[in-house]
Design a protein that fits this description.
This protein is of the alpha/beta class. The longest helix is centred in the last third of the chain and has 18 residues, at 218-235. It is built from nine helices and ten strands. Helix 5 (128-141) runs parallel beside helix 7 (189-199). The strands form two sheets. Strands 1, 2, 3, 4, 5, 8, 9 and 10 form an eight-stranded mixed beta sheet that branches. Strands 6-7 form a two-stranded antiparallel ribbon.
Length: 272
């Protein structure tokens, strides 16, 4: 099956932002705080920035002046991100710039002068060749790289249902689907990023960063569940008939706050 790159909406990014912020690993930020840029100003390239949620989370945790360069292909998302007014941990100024970019084509020259490269919820959307090319470019720049909230192919729903495993397997297969750019890495992306970075001599620190969605996150759980079921059925059409009643039951549980969802991710910090 050949599939194009889907468009991510502003509404989805805003809905998931609190769960992303709660999941990200603060210990990795401490590594960054212990490595202040030699110039005194953080120059941070955020790849696949969307509406700028990484900057809203990370900028207030880093001291000193910061210059954020946000890269995304979606002009509407970049326009939304450009309106943000951020401040550093010590109140220093934060400047935000936006660039419409295909992040898979950025080379070391495009990222020259970066003191940090970040990306969030991006790796699973890449092919192996794209990610290997990006890792090579990052290695030439020689700065830390913070890769946040990459899915790892594990989902837990409570209470459990016999269909959970079938849908999870179909969803993972959908994430590894063929596209015009090649086969997506999906839940294999973290391993590829870690291995590729270590092969180039970097130190890599990896931390689990799961979403834990309960009654307080019911709106996000509902949207995630609908997308999860839909993608699974797109991949395995034979599941569509049984998934209809399954989805109705699960969505009802989510709306009533009776469903707990854990979506496992990993944060990866690459230190040259």
């Amino acid at each position: 099956m050949i599939a194009a790159r889907p468009r991510v909406t502003d509404a989805w990014l805003r809905l998931r932002e609190p769960a992303d912020a709660a999941a990200r690993d603060l210990e990795l930020v401490e590594h960054l705080r212990r490595r202040p840029p030699a110039s005194g100003c953080h120059v941070i390239h955020d790849l696949g920035s969307g509406t700028g949620s990484m900057g809203r989370w990370l900028a207030p945790l880093l001291p000193g002046p910061q210059r954020w360069i946000l890269h995304d292909q979606d002009e509407e998302l970049l326009e939304s991100a450009a309106t943000e007014r951020l401040a550093a941990a010590d109140g220093a100024s934060v400047v935000v710039e936006t660039r419409r970019s295909d992040v898979t084509l950025l080379d070391a020259h495009d990222l020259s002068g970066a003191s940090l490269i970040t990306a969030s919820a991006l790796l699973d959307l890449l092919t192996r060749d794209e990610l290997e090319g990006m890792i090579s470019a990052w290695a030439k720049v020689g700065c830390p790289v913070f890769l946040s909230l990459s899915v790892v192919g594990r989902v837990e729903l409570a209470p459990a249902d016999p269909l959970d495993r079938n849908l999870a397997a179909a969803f993972d297969a959908h994430q590894r689907r063929m596209t015009p750019r090649g086969r997506l890495l999906g839940p294999d992306a973290v391993d590829v990023a870690v291995e590729g970075s270590r092969r180039r001599g970097a130190e890599v620190v990896e931390r689990p960063t799961p979403w834990r969605l309960g009654a307080a996150e019911a709106d996000l759980a509902i949207e995630w569940l609908a997308g999860w079921i839909g993608a699974a059925c797109e991949e395995a059409v034979e599941l569509a008939a049984v998934a209809r009643s399954y989805g109705a039951r699960r969505l009802s549980e989510a709306r009533s706050g009776e469903l707990a969802v854990t979506v496992h991710h990993a944060d990866v910090l690459v230190l040259p």
